[in-house]
Specification:
The complex is a heterodimer of chains A (81) and B (224).
Chain A: H1 2-10, E1 15-20, H2 24-29, E2 34-38, H3 52-68, E3 74-77
Parallel strand pairs in A: 1-2, 2-3
Chain B: H1 4-10, H2 29-49, H3 53-67, E1 91-96, E2 100-102, H4 117-122, H5 124-127, E3 135-138, E4 146-148, H6 156-160, H7 168-176, E5 182-183, E6 186-189, H8 196-212, E7 218-222
The chains are: A alpha/beta (81), B alpha/beta (224).
Chain lengths: 81, 224
């Protein structure tokens, strides 16, 4: 979704990507605006099935990143709050 | 006699296909051997402790190692839109490359009706040359009406709970909890294993206007 992020940012819409850590180099290379990297297996970037608390925690951190980031390529790592 | 290289290659779209471990095909023989040795050791520990976290950590580390390195697409800089309002006042959209769609509205990739997950896996090389199709998914879609098909990743977790990669219910809860103001009326999803040039064309001609007509303040994007 790196190209998707770049497209909408160019249209003036802020984006945040939530992705597993394995995508780190790909996202850095694409110079995406904001990304939250999570320590989960591929295909489960929001964590384990059924763990709604953890999924919400990831989502809140991602949403906050939209507001907090001040420069492009702001890539941060998820840690459970 | 099958070589070790042939064995690990068979795990990525071969006779032993397993999308959770397809990364073994990207590793050197030595790295793959070290990973499998560590996996067996960790499984031995698991037999007695039943602690899953160390096992998951090992798998994640293997995936990170296999996918590290120089990426295919590299840009020296990128566009950056400043968030113009507090997130609690924002209308937020969701777009994922997880391959979700609504039952009864199958995007029919490659012109195939009711394509199975197995066929999507078998035809992954066709998908990556194809124009992606965007599925519109009403935010109030019931979980049992949400379908997923994607030949590029193991969808087992998404079948149990779509929110692991398509967090439409979690996003709605953010509205109820006053963390954001609202969502777009629909979420969107496509199969990320697609031709990137054709993806960019779709964004310019179709997907851009479609999402922008609802004036989102921000977008949540999720690759599978």
């Amino acid at each position: 979704v790196g190209h998707v992020a770049r497209f909408y940012e160019a249209q003036g819409v802020p984006t945040v990507i939530v992705a597993v850590e394995a995508f780190r180099d790909t996202l850095e290379g694409m110079h995406v605006p904001r990304a939250l990297l999570t320590p989960f297996p591929m295909g489960r970037p929001f964590g384990a099935p059924g763990d709604s608390a953890q999924q919400s925690d990831v989502l809140k951190m991602a949403l906050n990143l939209i507001e907090e980031a001040t420069t492009s390529k702001t890539i941060v790592h998820y840690s459970r709050s | 006699m099958e070589s070790f290289q042939e064995f690990r290659k068979s795990i990525s779209y071969g006779s032993r296909n397993n999308l959770n471990f397809k990364f073994l095909a990207r590793m050197t023989d030595e790295d793959a051997a070290n990973f499998l040795e560590a996996l067996l050791q960790q499984l031995s520990v698991f037999i007695d402790t039943h602690e899953i976290e160390p096992l998951l950590k090992l798998i994640v580390e293997g995936q990170i190692k296999a996918y590290s390195g120089t990426p295919k697409y590299q840009y020296a800089e990128g566009p950056f839109a400043v968030m113009a309002k507090p997130i609690r006042s924002a209308k937020v959209g969701l777009l994922t490359s997880s391959g979700h769609f609504v039952d009864g509205n199958d995007p029919e990739p490659l012109g195939v009706k009711e394509m199975s997950q197995q066929e999507a896996i078998t035809r992954i090389s066709d998908f990556i040359r194809e124009t992606p199709i965007l599925s519109s998914i009403p935010m109030n879609t019931l979980a049992e009406k949400l379908m997923v098909r994607h030949g590029g990743y193991d969808i087992a977790g998404a079948l149990l709970d779509a929110n692991v990669v398509f967090p439409w219910q979690r996003l709605q809860e953010m509205v109820e909890g006053n963390h954001i103001d609202s969502t777009l009326s629909h979420a969107y999803s496509f199969v990320g294993a697609c031709a990137q040039g054709l993806l960019k064309q779709q964004l310019e001609s179709n997907w851009g206007p479609l999402l922008l007509q609802e004036s989102p303040d921000a977008l949540l994007l999720v690759p599978a």
